[in-house]
Q: What sequence folds into this?
């Protein structure tokens, strides 16, 4: 370790001669606390995952209201609900919200909650950084949306092309909010990416080699690598834009010789991998669900994994297909047309493997299964319309029309969001300890499928018959009326299906009291997260299992004969883990500092927009937060340990940087046994 | 967990029926392109036709693949559904994968795509081939209208005294290739006449080529398709393809100026107002073009629509309003909807410099525009982007219209 450490490392009990107490050392909050305050200081990957999901659904409601405003405005020619100015803000914020504050964080929610469970880890590698990622995302999202109350939202589109994003063309602060807000959420994504990559690579249960990982974990790994390389490109572009807008720099000032295509290249080098990192987590989720309800293994595990990796690599070579009409020249257009065409191959492989997984199975049409099949079919439409864009000459007709709007909603809603809905229904009992109502869930699915298709399918024809994107009004006589009405009706059906989902959460919770608990394994599932009690205990696994093959949990229940016949070898109740007191398990202690550190960033960002003195305040909070973070003791005073102060269940402790400094600074190492008994995981 | 529920079953059937009808209706709709002036599915020029020729088979392949995948999913879902009487402990055959199938469905799509790739590359080459004997027009976008410069004498310079500057509408001879160069004076716009070719962005500082050609005389509408700020939706344009003879007459008229004083006393007063107010940004050749070359225009884009031959155009204000009321609704030149009046926009004889049919001029909209332009079309005049409210009196408006009506 490169850190110079004046304290002795690895104190053993009784060795403490001098207690080192620098200024500013705060005791950590107590583990095992409940109540709303415990959520503010938690470093538990499960609580953080839940908070990601809850925040994303909150932002989803905001983005959904924006979508409905758009649809009402376009109900008839010359809509008057929104002014041109307001409409431009609404569609910009709709796109920005849905991408950065809904789809990405729902992916993060599943990755955070599930991935450590799927690999049999106690927590992620850097629990405090994980908490920091969440708070930075939340504060960034709130900061971004606070623009509505402070002079109006960004009005340049989610892609904010230069030079329309300059002060001359967008004189309000909206784009500054967009810019700084997304820089903050970018910090969150980047910290999260490093964290989750380290977790997957270093903290798998014994025996779990890479090719024995569940597919969702694989897709999470690919996604986090995409984030790791994509986000910095966007952040770099945004810092250039910030310099232009706030400090009169000239990176995108055409009058001073700038080439505005610079922004487009930077934005799409981020923006296209972004598409794949939004869809891959959903692909991972359905790859878990389809085999569970087909009652047979995923077809072609290595092909599903490697096609995901192939998408991850090829996703970097297709960005300029967003720029076929920008004037990048016929050679470049040809190159990117071809790369774009061939990224359809690994995507197609996935679709066909899913169909083959279902083939020959005994399909149980539960809600998660329905949503997964929904993804397979709806995403296929989005994928095929994507192939028509790769035909560059055709794209010159299609781009920036509603055909594109239809395409990416089939990919991101029909693909990613249907996958997330499947995941919500599938994992709900594991997370909250009760099943969502199946009848409502099925109604939810059919209503969503209906609303989704009514909303977005007509946009294909609207686009091909000439309706441009991002127009707040259209005139009668273009033949746009009928399909816009259908789309608007569909949008309200879609909204009602979301409302039904939210209702189902509360309805099922209220009914759960009278129903038997779902138990560890309500679906007769395959991967090891289903062998622990529901809801997941704070310590996850006790003991951590040793993994010997893909779908390890399944093969603890069933054995396979040579001719592919499955026989039960153990009752589920005998192989699932029982709730233990978790006393001997050392979990990372909560911390005050991640939320403090994250809170400094929006303050500094407000300062950049309104008053530089606020930057000083934000800076002090950030530096103070870092200071507190670094000096914080590794454990709270009552943290659980084995009696001998060691913990054989590795993969715990504080952040990696302090893991080796076991023993606390201001506490004697040996705890009062009576006191220790109070702390129960 | 109730296995059957009537409500869910009804919802399921309704969804499947509605979605099936929806898809069928959408496919049928693609064949009805009448009354859809911006459709990409009914090409009127060689470039748009070669795009159409390329994309139709791709749509067909995509459609077949979709039907196959959907059919496979539905068949599998039906055939392999679990039944109530099934023993839950009896499992299907545990197949982990088949390598030859995997290789097959990796190679097969790759081969289909390779075929599509060949067509794509040849079409790209075709679309970028320069045509001999084409007319060179520079199209410049600015918030929120299009300017056209014709290199009439073909010297490679669009700003010579022999060249034409006009706005909003591009007049071209039918059957002759037009080599367009797009550029911009402020933000990025995109020039798109779907009937004639795909779009091409107008990027400040870049000069992008685009071929246009209309096979038949007619009006080909377009819409700016790169989001360009406040009034992006209101940035439209049209190509007016006319017979070759009319085009030559149009060119001869465009080269004239309006140096001669108007005769109508109202128009004389109007010209004074025009010079004092409008002339700060707009230009009329022979009136203020010399002075305008040395006086900076108080606009971000640095230019406002040239008004020298205003009345030869059928539309104004980014082609969202008609300059003329309808005379004959069956006139093939009649525009389908432009602005707040039902249709029309045919300059008639004025197109080639003939008399302006003042009785047909759409005075209501024109006067409303002069009264308060930003109320008619969202603009940002306080930041030098768009036309301000000039606070004209009704008399001044009357006189201005009288003057503008002389600009044939």
A:
């Amino acid at each position: 370790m490169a850190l110079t450490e004046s304290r002795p490392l690895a104190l053993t009990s009784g060795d403490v001669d001098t207690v080192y107490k620098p200024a500013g050392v705060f005791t950590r909050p107590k583990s095992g606390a409940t109540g709303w305050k415990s959520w503010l200081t938690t470093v538990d990957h499960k609580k953080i995952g839940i908070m990601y999901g809850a925040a994303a659904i909150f932002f989803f409601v905001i983005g959904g209201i924006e979508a409905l405003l758009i649809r009402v405005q376009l109900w008839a020619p010359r809509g008057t609900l929104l002014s041109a100015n307001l409409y431009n803000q609404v569609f910009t914020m709709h796109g920005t919200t849905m991408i950065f504050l809904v789809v990405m964080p729902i992916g993060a929610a599943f990755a955070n909650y599930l991935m450590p469970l799927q690999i049999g880890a106690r927590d992620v590698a850097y629990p405090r950084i994980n908490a920091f990622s969440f708070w930075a995302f939340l504060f960034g999202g709130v900061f971004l949306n606070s623009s509505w109350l402070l002079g109006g939202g960004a009005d340049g589109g989610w892609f904010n092309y230069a030079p329309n994003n300059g002060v001359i063309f967008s004189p309000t602060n909206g784009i500054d909010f967009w810019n700084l807000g997304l820089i903050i959420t970018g910090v969150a994504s980047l910290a999260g990416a490093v964290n989750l990559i380290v977790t997957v690579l270093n903290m798998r249960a014994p025996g779990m080699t890479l090719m024995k990982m569940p597919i969702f974990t694989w897709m999470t790994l690919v996604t986090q690598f995409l984030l790791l390389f994509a986000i910095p490109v966007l952040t770099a572009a945004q810092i250039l834009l910030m310099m232009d807008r706030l400090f009169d720099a000239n990176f995108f000032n055409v009058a001073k010789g700038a080439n505005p295509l610079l922004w487009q290249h930077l934005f799409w080098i981020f923006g296209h991998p972004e598409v794949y990192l939004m869809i891959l987590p959903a692909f991972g989720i359905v790859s878990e669900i389809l085999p569970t309800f087909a009652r047979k293994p995923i077809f072609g595990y290595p092909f599903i994994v490697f096609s995901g990796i192939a998408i991850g690599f090829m996703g970097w070579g297709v960005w300029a297909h967003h720029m076929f009409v920008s004037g990048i020249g016929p050679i470049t257009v040809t190159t990117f047309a071809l790369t774009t065409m061939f990224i359809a191959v690994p995507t197609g492989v996935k679709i066909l493997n899913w169909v083959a997984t279902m083939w020959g199975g005994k399909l149980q049409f539960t809600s998660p299964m329905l949503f997964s099949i929904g993804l397979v079919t709806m995403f296929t439409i989005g994928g095929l319309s994507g192939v028509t864009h790769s035909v560059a000459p055709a794209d010159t007709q299609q781009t920036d029309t509603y055909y594109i709007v239809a395409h990416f909603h089939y990919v991101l809603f029909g693909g990613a969001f249907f996958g997330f809905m499947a995941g919500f229904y599938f994992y709900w009992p594991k997370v909250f300890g009760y099943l969502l109502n199946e009848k409502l869930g099925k109604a939810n699915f059919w209503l969503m499928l209906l609303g989704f298709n009514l909303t977005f399918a007509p946009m294909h024809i609207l686009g091909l018959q000439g309706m441009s994107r991002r127009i707040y009004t259209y005139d009668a006589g273009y033949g746009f009326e009928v399909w816009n009405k259908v789309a608007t009706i569909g949008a309200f059906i879609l909204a009602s299906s979301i409302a039904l989902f939210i209702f189902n959460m509360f309805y099922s919770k209220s009914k759960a009291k009278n129903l038997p608990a779902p138990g560890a394994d309500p679906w007769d599932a395959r991967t090891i997260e289903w062998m622990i009690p529901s809801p997941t205990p704070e310590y996850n696994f006790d003991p951590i299992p040793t993994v010997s093959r893909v779908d390890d949990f399944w093969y603890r229940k069933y054995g396979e004969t040579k001719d592919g016949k499955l026989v039960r070898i153990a009752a589920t109740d005998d192989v699932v883990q029982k709730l233990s007191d978790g006393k001997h398990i050392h979990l990372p202690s909560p911390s005050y500092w991640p939320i403090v550190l994250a809170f400094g960033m929006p303050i500094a960002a407000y300062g950049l927009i309104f008053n530089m003195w606020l930057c000083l305040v934000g800076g002090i909070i950030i530096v103070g937060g870092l200071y507190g973070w670094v000096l914080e003791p590794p454990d709270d005073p009552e943290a659980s340990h084995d009696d001998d102060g060691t913990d054989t269940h590795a993969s715990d402790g504080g952040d990696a940087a302090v893991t080796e400094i076991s023993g606390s600074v201001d506490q004697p190492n040996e705890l009062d046994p009576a006191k220790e008994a109070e702390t129960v995981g | 967990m109730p296995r059957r529920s009537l409500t869910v079953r009804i919802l399921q059937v309704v969804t499947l029926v509605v979605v099936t009808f929806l898809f069928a209706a959408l496919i049928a709709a693609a064949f009805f392109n009448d009354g859809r002036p911006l459709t990409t599915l009914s090409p009127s020029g060689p470039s748009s036709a070669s795009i159409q020729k390329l994309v139709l088979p791709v749509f067909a392949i995509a459609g077949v693949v979709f039907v196959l995948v959907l059919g496979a999913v539905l068949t599998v879902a039906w055939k392999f559904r679990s039944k109530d009487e099934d023993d839950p402990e009896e499992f299907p055959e545990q197949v982990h994968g088949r390598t030859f199938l995997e290789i097959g469905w990796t190679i097969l799509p790759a081969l289909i795509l390779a075929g599509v790739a060949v067509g794509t590359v040849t079409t790209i080459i075709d679309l970028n081939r320069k045509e001999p004997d084409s007319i060179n027009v520079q199209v410049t976008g600015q918030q929120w209208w299009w300017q056209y410069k014709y290199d009439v004498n073909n010297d490679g310079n669009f700003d010579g005294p022999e060249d034409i500057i006009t706005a909003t509408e591009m007049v071209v001879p039918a059957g002759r290739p037009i080599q367009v160069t797009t550029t911009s004076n402020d933000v990025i716009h995109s020039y798109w006449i779907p009937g004639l070719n795909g779009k091409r962005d107008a990027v400040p500082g870049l000069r992008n080529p685009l071929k246009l050609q209309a096979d038949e005389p007619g009006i080909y509408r377009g819409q700016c398709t790169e989001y360009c700020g406040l009034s992006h939706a209101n940035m439209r344009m049209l190509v007016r393809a006319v017979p070759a003879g009319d085009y030559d007459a149009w060119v001869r008229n465009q080269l004239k100026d309006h140096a001669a004083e108007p005769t109508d006393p109202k128009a004389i007063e109007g010209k004074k107002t025009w010079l004092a107010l409008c002339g700060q940004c707009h230009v009329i050749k022979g009136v203020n073009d010399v002075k305008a070359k040395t006086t900076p225009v108080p606009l971000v884009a640095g230019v406002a629509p040239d008004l020298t031959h205003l009345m030869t155009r059928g539309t104004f204000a980014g082609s969202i309003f008609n300059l003329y009321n309808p005379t004959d609704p069956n006139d093939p030149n009649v525009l389908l909807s432009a602005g707040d009046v039902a249709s029309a926009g045919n300059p008639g004889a004025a197109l080639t410099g003939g008399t302006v049919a003042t009785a047909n001029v759409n005075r209501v909209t024109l006067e409303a525009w002069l009264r308060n332009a930003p109320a008619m079309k969202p603009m940002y005049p306080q930041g030098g982007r768009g036309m301000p409210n000039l606070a004209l009196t009704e008399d001044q408006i009357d006189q201005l219209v009288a003057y503008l009506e002389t600009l044939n």
About this structure: The mean pLDDT of chain A is 90. The CA atoms of residues 584 and 641 of chain A lie 5 Å apart. Residues 84-118 of chain A form the longest helix (35 residues).
